[in-house]
Specification:
The protein has 370 residues and is mostly helical. 57% of the residues lie in helices and 6% in strands. The strands form 2 sheets. Strands 3-4-5-6 form a 4-stranded parallel sheet. The chain has a two-stranded parallel ribbon with strand order 1-2.
């Protein structure tokens, strides 16, 4: 089975806030997934490390890569502590990165990241399989780069973001839609983003060669400078006691939030120029009228009825046995993936399984730093 799980919980603590369990237990669950996939689903990517969300939350490009690599190292260390070898899982780790603003900076960021990740896996961890050090990534145009003002400009922005991904050697790309700054994308907007990528493939020729900007004095210099900055960001994390400790104490969150605040002030003052927002603004221009998607009450009721039907028809005794097994494995600090698989097959709900783990692990209490 092939696929990828976007279960990078450390970036949730930093960038989105959708955490439940304390940091150590959350990392333990990721290690459970890595170990389980190495043994039972070796072609599946057990975690997609998301620098994307960290960048969207305020990190600069070098920190986006550096923090993502520090996160990946935390998961790698946890997996190695289980007795796995680096070549059993490193080649299936994947990454999700952001594209925003300057084309040359972004291309240099990804080129530097590929070299740095290979050095981490092969030189630091001693991987023997060269493919273990490949930086497998999806690169996407960040939503924070889009604007409500003059939304048609977002079509052009999306095309340039796609260009960056192609020039950077991303395995795949994902583009936000032009109306995504203010609503759920319409089918028409989604089609424009899809056609943008297809134009680059079929008409522009960006898939005809690998690393087309390689050898440029400018790009090579930027790449070397960016790698130094990535290493600097990783060194800062290590100086704080490592990524798990830094996240648990709220240090990364505070740093990223401060930078997001500074960026917003620069945007409002005009120091950071944004076309159609603080420069090249039409006098008397009105913002577009936005028709937002309404809440689907019928869909809500249909989902509730479906859940009630599942609960009525499932084997209640097996559900209870599977949840008890999950609790026992969690209390014993065992890998909970087999118990979770059993519970899923018994049609235990996500809420039921989560509540069991909360009962063992507790909930994370986020520290506030200013």
């Amino acid at each position: 089975m092939r696929g990828a799980a976007q279960n990078d919980i450390l970036k949730e603590f930093i960038g989105r806030g959708t955490w439940i369990f304390p940091v150590d237990h959350s990392v333990k669950l990721v290690a459970d997934t890595i170990e389980y996939c190495a043994q039972h689903a070796p072609k599946y990517s057990p975690v997609s490390v998301c620098g994307y969300h960290i960048r969207e939350s305020g990190a600069n490009p070098a920190e986006e890569m550096g923090y993502a690599f520090a996160i990946a190292k935390a998961y790698t260390d946890a997996a190695l502590a289980r007795g796995l070898s680096i070549d059993e899982f490193a080649g299936r780790l994947s990454f999700n990165f952001n594209i925003f603003s300057n084309l040359f900076e972004q291309v240099a960021k990804f080129r530097a990241g590929r070299g740095r990740w290979a050095k981490i896996i092969i030189d630091e961890y001693g991987a023997e399989n060269p493919t273990s050090g490949w930086l497998r990534m999806i690169a996407g145009g960040g939503g924070s780069g889009l604007t409500i003002e003059q939304p048609e400009n977002n079509i052009a922005r999306g095309a340039y973001y796609a260009l960056v991904a192609a020039l950077s050697g991303a395995q795949t790309m994902a583009l936000c839609c032009y109306d995504e700054a203010y609503t759920i994308p319409t089918p028409k907007a989604q089609r424009i983003s899809l056609r943008t990528m297809q134009l680059l493939i079929e008409e522009i020729g960006l898939c005809d060669t690998v690393d087309p900007l390689g050898g440029s004095y400018f790009i090579e210099t930027l790449t070397n400078q960016m790698e130094d900055k990535i290493v600097e960001a990783m060194d800062w994390v290590e100086a704080q006691g490592g990524m798990v400790k830094a996240v648990g104490e709220g240090l990364i969150q505070a740093r990223v939030s401060k930078q997001a605040y500074d960026h917003q002030r620069a945007l409002q003052s005009g120091e950071f120029r944004k076309v159609g927002v603080n420069c090249y603004v039409e006098e008397g221009e009105e913002k577009p009228e936005v028709e937002l998607h309404g809440y689907d009450e019928a869909g809500e009721q249909a989902q509730i009825r479906s859940l009630q039907q599942v609960r009525a028809e499932r084997d209640g005794a097996e559900v209870e046995r599977s949840l008890a097994a999950l609790q026992a494995d969690a209390e014993a600090s065992a890998n909970v993936m087999p118990a979770l698989m059993r519970a899923v097959k018994a049609y235990a709900t996500v809420g039921e399984m989560t509540n069991v783990l909360v009962g063992v692990y507790g909930r994370y209490d986020e520290p506030l730093r200013f």
